[in-house]
Structures are given as C-alpha cells and as structure tokens.
Amino acid sequence: MLTEVTLAICESIVTAAQMLSEQGLSPGTSGNVSSRYKNGMLITPSGVDYAALTPDTLVFVDQNGQYQHDALKPSSEWQFHLAIYQHRQDINAVVHTHSEAATALACTGRGIPAFHYMVAIGGGENIRCAPYATFGTETLAHKALEALEGRMACLLANHGVIACGENLRAAARLANEVEVLSAQYSRALGIGDVQILDTQEMQTVLAKFKGYGQTL
Questions:
Q1: Given CA atoms 109, 116, 88, 16 in this order, what sign does their dihedral have?
Q2: Among 11, 22, 77, 146, which one carries the catalytic annotation?
Q3: Residues 74 and 45: beta-carbon distance below 8 Å
Q4: What is the pLDDT of residues 28-58, one digit of tens each?
Q5: Where does residue 207 fall: left (phi above 0), alpha (psi -120 to 50 degrees), or beta otherwise?
C-alpha cells in the first residue's frame, strides 16, 4: 500500500512520462523518468509501455543501486539517474528522452552552442554532448555527469537527451526546450554559417534568466 506522499510522487512520474510520450519525445518504450525519493529514487520500469504505467509499476532504487528483484526491473538507465542524484543536490527529477531532433543532433556528436539565447535555459552558455558509451553502463553515467557539470541538460552521443530539474515539471519542460533548440540549430546548420553569441552576452542572458518568469 502506497502512502499518500509516495502515491503523489508516483502519480507525478506517471503523468510526466505519459506526457513526454504523447508529445512524441519518448517514442515507444524509449526514455525514462525518475524522481528523488528517500535515500534513493523512484524510476519508470524497463520495457513497459507508457500507457500501461501506474503508480504501482514504478521501481524504488536505493542509494546503493539495490532494488527488489522479484518485482519489475528499473529502467536500464537507472545508473545515470542515481549518479545524478548522488552528485547534484540541486536536482530532484531526471527525464531521459530519445526525441527526434535532439537524438539526430547527438548522433553527429555535436552539442548545442550559443546559437540562440534560449540555450541558457540549460544552465550555461552551451548544452554539451557527452561522448558515446554503451547504454545502461556505469561508464555512461560518468560521462553524463561530466557533461552535466554546471548544467541542467545534456545530449548523449548516438543516444538521446538528459534533462534535469528541481521538480518533474521543470525537467519535462527542459526536455521539450532541448528538442526545440536541437531542431532550430540543425535547421540553421543546413542554411549555412551559424552566428554564435559570445560568452559575455550569454553571461548577461544567464543573469537575466535568474529573475525571469513567474513563481507558480
């Protein structure tokens, strides 16, 4: 029996995962969603269709990477989710997608430079692309952590996207923004030389972003 608090967290994960699927950011059973919980995290299970997700299907993984082996298995990417929570206390939710434009860009090994001021939404003057590593490995977790240093999002070479946030709403929104930016940057590359904003301008934008928007 899930407690009221646990149920609310599980429902928010299911809602976020299903929304990402409906938006086309996580085709099929690709991608995964997690939230920090107690001494570990709650994460979507491996290979379960998003439409079939319920609060009871989510998997708890503790701080040592242990989970209940007679139940559903956690997403194969649980290692980088857990590593992020262990190393980044400012992050409480992680979204991983295989969205079309961002994944295509990641397959070229490119990150997203400051071609548009909105790149700053990822937390810095660029969105890095982590070097390739086999999915579901500790090596990938290490590479993802490096790419996320000082950032809230990164691409994974030949793989997809990681977007993080202080909550699931923020992480999911960032995943969508990375997809939009990836599509715009790819289109700009096809037109010709892309104008990149300099470090000084991006620092100005980052400072403005700190007080931008509404608190809901």
A1: negative
A2: 77
A3: yes
A4: 889 999 999 999 999 999 999 999 999 999 9
A5: alpha
Per-domain boundaries in the chain = 4-209
Active site residue 77: yes
How far, in whole angstroms, is CA 99 from its chain's centroid? 11
Would you state the pLDDT for residue 215?
44
CA 154/CA 122 separation, integer angstroms? 8
For 16-136, strand residue ranges (E) read 32-37, 40-43, 59-62, 93-97, 129-130
Task: Give every strand in the sheet of 40-43, ordered side by side.
Answer: 59-62, 40-43, 32-37, 93-97, 160-165, 153-156, 129-130
Task: Retrieve residue 181's tokens.
Answer: 């930016």
CATH architecture for the domain at 4-209: 3-Layer(aba) Sandwich (3.40)
Closest by CA to 95, choosing from 16, 39, 150, is 16
Residue labelled with tokens 């992050």: 91
